[in-house]
Amino acid sequence: MARYSTQYRGNKEFWLSLLAAILITAVYAFVVWWTRAIPPAGAFFGHLLGVLGFILMLLTETLYSIRKRSHTARWGSMASWLQFHIFTGLVGPYLVLLHTSWKFNGLAGATTLLTVIIVISGFIGRYIYTQIPRTLDGVEIETPSTKFQAATLARARRLMAVWQVIHIPIGMALFTAAFIHIGAALYYATLLR
Amino acid sequence: MKNTRLGCFTTSGFMSAVLTAFLITGFALVSGGIVFSPGALNAQAGAPLGGVSSHADIAGRCNLCHAPFWGTETMADRCVVCHTDVAGQQLTPSPLHGVLPNLACINCHPDHRGPNAPLTAMDAAHFPHDSVGYALTAHQRKSDGSSFNCKDCHTQNYVPPFNQAICTTCHIQIDTTFVQTHTMDFGSDCLACHDGIDIYGRNFNHNGVPFQLIGKHAQVLCAQCHVNSRNIADLKFTPQDCNSCHAKDDKHTGRFGMNCGACHTPNGWLPASFDHNLSTFKLTGQHIPVACGNCHINNIYQGTPTDCYSCHQKDDKHKNQFGTNCAACHTSAGWLPVNVDHNLFAFKLTGKHTTVSCENCHINNNFQGTPTDCYFCHQKNDTHNGRFGKNCAACHSTSGWLPATFDHNLSGFPLTGAHVRLNCTQCHTGGVYSRLSTACAACHAEPAIHAGVFGTNCAQCHNTSNWNASFSHPGGCDGNCINHAGASCKDCHTVNYSTATCTKCHDSNKPGGGD
Hints:
The structure holds two protein chains of two kinds. In chain A, α4 (106-129) runs antiparallel to α5. By secondary structure, chain A is an all-alpha fold. Chain A is built from five helices and two strands. In chain B, α7 (165-174) runs antiparallel to α8. Chain B is an all-alpha fold. Chain A binds chain B through residues 34-37, 40-43, 61-62, 64-66, 68-71, 103, 105-108, 164-165, 168-173, 175-177, 180-181, 184-193, and chain B through 2-8, 10, 12-17, 19-21, 24, 27, 33-40, 62, 66-69, 74-76, 104, 106, 123-125, 140, 147.
């Protein structure tokens, strides 16, 4: 009989994300204090924030999905990968937010907005996810033991399906906008001289 | 069959991506590049240039300013398409645009900062101040913690030359004494050395240059070595040889040359580590602990004489009798033991003389003209009381007074015959060995048998080998008249030689008178 837990284990990824956010904020504050200016998105530090944030967001988008659907990869539990997915899904967007230099013009602003939306959507999805009982390895329990569990499971699965229909297109829109933003930045602002 | 696609590659996901791309493309087609703009362009109207009066008039026409990164054209190239006046200024050295040829326009003239934001902003975020040869690294904060404004330093204008009076005006408030001294030492052309990042300032590591500051050198004020230095070149060309700085300190007044480091270290003049053995006069024995000043009088270290007598004349107990080369007998190990080869002198030391201390012969350390005759020293030893003269060596050797080897035949009385066998004292009675009479009678009294007939000259008849050697019997009767050969003297001279009798053999004393 497979071991399972009806509740997702702990909130470690949130605390780690909070710690990372505090560290990043400290660095950002130091740069602000040192230069007496908001780091411009197009300067070195601003670019660094944007590039790192985007890489983390790409990892958010891809790694969890690859692990979930791989036939052969069994490295790490699905729950751990979800933790990593949430961690990068929080820290990456936070870096991107700092990259904006608090200007939300045009496509860049729209991309930031989509980023905020996808994070909120992710929070919601994470809540629904925890309603579905799983084994310790993250595999859904197919045979609920009580009537109450059966009802909860059915409702959660419906919500999850609805949520995915919303969350995934928002994410695709976000990454499409982000890639175009990056392309435009490369085209117009690679060599500002 | 399990789905192997990424989770985002759903139908709705693809549709969303395509729709987003269409939307953005549509916006770009309608609005131009505004959709990619990071902020509104400056809208303050100025003199018309290129058909427009502000950057805002060309909003969305990104390519008028932005050149693609794969081309050789830059943004600055596109700026001067409209700003032709600036293009002209850049070719002239006096205006600011001509002074800053290596800067891009955007370094001082950023845009996309809003319609009312100034187009000129030479702040730290945009203007690379180090491009004009002076970085603002060390000018991020004032002493009160506030940021610098351009006009804090550029009190008059931004066009070179920079008025450096402001440097002193500010810095003298931070450290008055230092700035006053520093200005006196190195002049007031601050920019000749300082580049704003303190390469040659407070944080300069002198040990990164060939002349490292070690020991006492680390405590020296910069200007003590860098005299009259007014720029980096002057600082770099500061002489590094010892003498350039320390000539005034040279207590040897140049006599040891100019390379102080041969003996001294930067840790101090003392202890010095002069290796005297590298000089022609090596220090050995008792010379090692001698203080330098004992030989090098008045700190004169060059041309110091190396002959013994220059230093040791005062020590010469021989009072110059043996010359000035002490080393002929003495070594640096000490005055004693002396290594004199007396046999090199006319008076060679043999036998008992070799164990005699020098003073016994060389009275009062008088080593020259010492008499070599025996009697000068040995008069007191003369048990003959001078009767054999002063030449002891005639009989004695240095091996000892005895045995002596007196040759009596060298005297006025050679010993022959029975005299040879005599003891000395049989003749030399009373210890008297000189001026003895050589007459026979001095020893040999005339016997009674002579009856005073023959005198005292024994040698008339006797010799030292035979008392009866050569007597010729007087009276003509020497055996001629009668054969008396074979008779002894006492056969006839029964009493003495003045009387004779025949009756010992004959009946009467009358010749021919019967038997």
